[in-house]
Design goal:
about 130 residues, three-stranded antiparallel β-sheet, alpha+beta, six-stranded antiparallel β-sheet, 9 strands
């Protein structure tokens, strides 16, 4: 199945998270491909504001009727905001993964991991190959 949305302004990890880097602030979420693969999300485990997140380490999880999946950060930073709307409406990730379904915002302490992320075209090809 193809046709997943992969906005050009985002970077993508092989673990299906997306990253929007704006200065020292990074917004993270999961891709359209990931939410489609997981199906109906029923729970999102969010980190606490102020938590330190290391690149390559899990910072939360999403659970669907089908499976649970760790959320892995591609960069290091401090949590400055979490999308608390997901606590009562995790399905926002299904309906709007790049908008109202964002998961966490970080104040970046090390953006080195962002260099290894895929652009939209490469990520779309990666998803199509699975």
């Amino acid at each position: 199945m193809a046709g997943w949305k992969t906005p050009e302004n985002l970077k993508y990890a092989r673990t299906d998270e997306w990253l929007l880097l704006e200065g020292e602030t990074a917004t993270l979420g999961i891709s359209d491909y990931a939410q489609d693969s997981l199906n109906d999300l029923v729970f999102v485990e969010l980190p606490a504001p102020g938590a330190q997140i290391a690149a390559g380490e899990p910072f939360g999880a999403v659970e669907s009727v089908k499976a649970a999946s760790d959320l892995v950060s591609p960069i290091s930073g401090t949590v400055i905001e979490v999308n608390t709307a997901l606590e009562s409406a995790p399905e926002l990730i299904n309906s709007d993964p790049y908008g109202r379904g964002w998961i966490v915002r970080l104040k970046v302490t090390d953006a080195a991991g962002a260099g290894s992320l895929m652009n939209a075209a490469d990520y779309a090809a990666f998803c199509a190959s699975r």
